[in-house]
Amino acid sequence: MVGLAAQSRRLAGKVQAIPWLYAEIVRLLSVHELVHLIVEDANAEQRVRGILERAGANLDRVSFHAWPTDRGWTRDSGAIFVRNREGRVAITNWHFNAWAKYSDWQLDDQVPGRVAALLGLPSGSLRLSWKMATHIALCSKAAPSTSTVREFCSPPRSVS
Asked: How far apart are CA 8 and CA 38, in angstroms?
C-alpha cells in the first residue's frame, strides 16, 4: 500500500519529484505484483492515474482506494504484514497517533484496519512504545505479547 494524495498536498510546491518517484516505484512493482494505492478521492485518482500512465506503469495491476488520510505517509501508519511459520499472514495495527506530535491522526490510524478488511486478513491490535515497536520491526525475532498477533508470530521474547 502506498499513499500519494495527502503527501502531495502537504508538499505541494516543495518537492515536485515525489509523484514521479512514486510512479517509478509503482511502474517497477506493477510488472510482477498487484499494487494497491491509497488516494484521497476520485480527483486524486485521476491525477495519479495520469502520472502512472506517463510513467509506463501497468494500470491493469494497480488498484485505487479512496481512503482519506491525514498525511499519506504510510511507512508509519500503514499495515505491517507478519507471517507465521506455517505461512499464514496477518496484519498488525500499531494504533498510530502521529508521534503524539499532531492532533490530526485519526484517519491515518484507520489504514491498517481498512487494509485487513480489503484483503480479508486477520488483524491484531498492539499498544507498544515506539522504541519497542521499532525493536520488533528491526529484529523480527521478538514477537509482541498480544494473543491475536502471537497466534501468527513466534513465541514472545523479552525486549530490553
From this structure: 12
**Amino acid at residue number 20:** W
Q: Using CA atoms, how far apart are residues 19 and 50, in angstroms rounded to an integer?
A: 11
Those residues of the chain that have pLDDT short of 70 are 1-15, 126-160
CA distances to 7, 29, 38, 48 from 57, rounded to whole Å, are: 20, 9, 16, 11
| 62/55 Cα distance (integer angstroms) | 13
Q: CA-CA distance, 38 to 56, in Å (whole number)?
A: 19
3-state secondary structure labels for all residues of 69-101: CCCCCHHHHCCEEEECCCCCEEEEECCCCHHHC
Global pTM reads 0.68
